[in-house]
Specification:
Layout (H helix, E strand, L loop, with lengths): L5 H7 L5 H8 L6 E3 L5 E3 L2 H5 L6 E7 L9 H14 L4 E5 L4 H5 L7 E2 L2 E4 L1 H5 L5 H21 L6 E6 L3 E3 L9 E3 L10 E3 L1 E3 L4 H8 L3 H10 L1 E5 L4 E3 H4 L2 H8 L6 E5 L4 E4 L14 H10 L2 E5 L4 H16 L5 E6 L1 H7 L12 H21 L4 E6 L6 H12 L5 E4 L1 H4 L5 H11 L15 H13 L3 E4 L1 H12 L7 E4 L19 E10 L4 E6 L18 E2 L5 E2 L3
Parallel strand pairs: 3-16, 3-17, 4-15, 4-16, 8-11, 17-18, 18-19, 20-22, 21-23
Antiparallel strand pairs: 1-2, 2-14, 5-6, 6-14, 7-12, 9-10, 12-13, 14-15, 22-23, 24-25
Helix pairs in contact: 4-18, 7-8, 7-11, 9-11, 14-15, 15-16
Length: about 550
């Protein structure tokens, strides 16, 4: 049987004019700023002006990702469509895709099958220009920093201690480490430099955690760009860059309104990666979704040990958000990979491999229930090759934790395939919960990292390199010790070793260094060989993307 590609499904589904979507969401025309016929920005004044009480917040997360796929974004969209099919007012809030993965390994990131947000091509490419604005603000700060040094360096910045890097929204390993300022005195001061991908920029994290223009400017002013010769931090505020950076970001800060294939209002805004940043869409978009809908459905990147941990310990803490329910997405195929089955053999029943991989799901579920104390449901994205015996085994193991398993067929059926999940989520939203964070801010940086590793990852201990210990001591002395932790860790394992699948135990996570993201308001702990600038694979997705003479794009998944 031949299946349509995601982009083919998206292109054959008629879209409603964005004004109709806004009307359905309760957004008056005065707050709508159209970007063409099918996308718009929403003025954030609506958050203050609307008398509606906030709706309930639903977080969709997943097991540790594998090449077999999980379908977290697809489930998020299908759940919102499912809620509307059973008569509930639901709005979905998602991250914007980065061009790097779109042209690299992953392809498009706007859902899949019959659970997508559209216009799919626009969302996956330039969209409304938010990422370009974030990159421009990042690189303006870099330019003003180097110009300050060139023009006499009144602040006494040590060129060897600059921590601010340039960025570009593309996978380009050639730019990870560069030397710039060459060509003589008039062309700058020579120094080692480098690029991050835009979604790894602290500007992206600041952008997504800001609650207003005022908050944005305050956060921008606190960004540390480097250190002086006497080891004092230098900030964007000291360089006088904040006003111009905020001017670049003022329109981008407004959430983007689009629609699902079924016409559900969708806010797609911001996009930090969860393995190197905090992995959540913007606070503004989440709050707006809660203001517009009785149910706001959002997702956090990669597995629950990364995206959900940061959503709950960082975003909810900063924004004062309280989730009502959590959905953990899994597939039988992915669980069998966690049990050691090769990708080439996933289409056959293998209860032994499935049972060996199930502890990965169970640890994520246990964390939601017992660490964060939130109601939880497991959504299994059912594939045609999944057998009844395999599904029954997943249900049996989850039942022992007191968690229901609901089969989801949103990829094939859209909202219809998410109705059962929607019913269970509604039931969970009506349950009381005692939402808690996994650590206390008042603890030391070392202990906060150790708590995450032990309570969330299931590890034994943390090893800090001498460089990490020195930096921790310095950041603590500078007054940054009470900030939350943002772990930079492989997405493929609970540990810092991507080859340790399933639910490994007894491992030690090595923190090779830490850095402060003072504007975002967290300490980044760097583990393993995690990189802030990915590279393209041998056969990048860009090789298969094209556009015909009528402007029709192909190959975006």
């Amino acid at each position: 049987m031949a299946y349509l590609s995601d982009i083919e499904i998206a292109q054959m589904t008629p879209m409603k004019p964005i004004g109709q979507i806004a009307e359905a969401a309760g957004i008056a025309e005065a707050y709508l700023e159209p970007y063409g016929r099918y996308k718009a920005k929403v003025d954030t004044k609506l958050l203050k002006d609307s008398p509606r009480p906030d709706g309930k917040l639903i977080l969709v997360t997943a097991i540790t990702p594998t090449p077999a796929g999980e379908g977290k974004t697809t489930t998020t969209i299908g759940l919102a469509d499912g809620l509307r099919r059973i008569g509930k007012n639901a709005v979905v809030a998602l991250r914007e895709p980065s061009l790097g993965p779109v042209f690299g390994v992953k392809g498009g990131a706007a859902g899949g099958g019959y659970a997508q947000v559209v216009p799919m091509e626009d969302i996956n490419l330039h969209f409304t220009g938010d990422f370009h604005a974030i990159g421009a603000a990042n690189n303006l700060l870099a330019a003003m920093l180097d110009n300050h040094i060139y023009q006499g360096n009144a602040l006494g910045i040590d060129p060897r201690r600059i921590t601010w890097r340039r960025c570009v929204d593309m996978n380009d390993r050639q730019l990870r480490y560069i030397t710039d300022g060459l060509g003589g005195r008039v062309n700058g001061v020579p120094r080692e430099d480098g690029y991050d991908i835009t979604v790894a920029s602290e500007i992206m994290a600041v952008f997504c955690l800001s609650s207003s223009i005022t908050d944005l400017k305050e956060r921008l002013s606190r960004i540390v760009v480097g250190y002086t010769y006497d080891e004092q931090p230098v900030t964007a505020g000291q360089l006088g860059a904040v006003g111009a950076m905020a001017a670049l970001l003022k329109d981008a800060l407004k959430p983007n309104l689009v629609q699902t294939l079924e016409g559900t209002p969708a806010l797609v805004h911001g996009g930090p990666f969860a393995n190197i940043a905090h992995g959540c869409n913007s606070v503004m978009a989440t709050r707006l979704a809660m203001k517009l809908g009785d149910y706001a459905v959002t997702e956090a990147g990669f597995g629950a040990d990364l995206g959900a941990e940061k959503f709950l310990d960082i975003k909810c803490r900063f924004a004062g958000l309280r989730p009502s329910a959590v959905v953990v997405v899994a597939t039988v195929r992915a669980l069998k990979m966690h049990g050691g089955l090769p990708k080439t053999e996933l289409n056959r029943e293998d209860l032994t491999a499935l049972e060996a991989g199930l502890p990965n799901l169970l640890r994520h579920v246990s964390n939601i229930l017992h660490v964060y104390k939130l109601p939880c449901v497991v959504a299994v994205n059912r594939f045609p090759t999944d057998t009844d015996a395999e599904i029954a085994l997943v249900m049996e193991k989850c039942k022992a934790l007191g968690v229901r398993v609901v089969l989801s067929t949103v990829w094939a059926e859209g909202g219809k395939g998410g109705m059962a999940l929607a019913e269970e989520v509604m039931r969970l939203c009506d349950m009381p919960n005692d939402f808690s964070f996994s650590y206390e801010l008042e603890d030391t940086i070392e202990n906060k990292i150790r708590t995450i590793v032990r309570r969330v990852y299931g590890g034994e201990d943390v090893s800090f390199t001498p460089a990490a210990r020195k930096e921790i001591a310095k950041l603590t002395a500078l007054g940054y010790g009470n900030l939350p932790i943002c772990m930079a860790k492989t997405q493929y394992s609970f540990s810092d070793d991507p080859t340790k699948l399933g639910a490994p135990e007894g491992f030690t996570v090595t923190v090779r260094n830490v850095k402060v993201s003072a504007g975002a308001g967290f300490i980044v702990a760097l583990t393993g060989d995690i990189m802030t600038m990915p590279g393209l694979p041998k056969s990048p997705a860009a090789l298969r993307i094209d556009v015909d003479e009528n402007g029709k794009i192909s190959g975006l998944f």
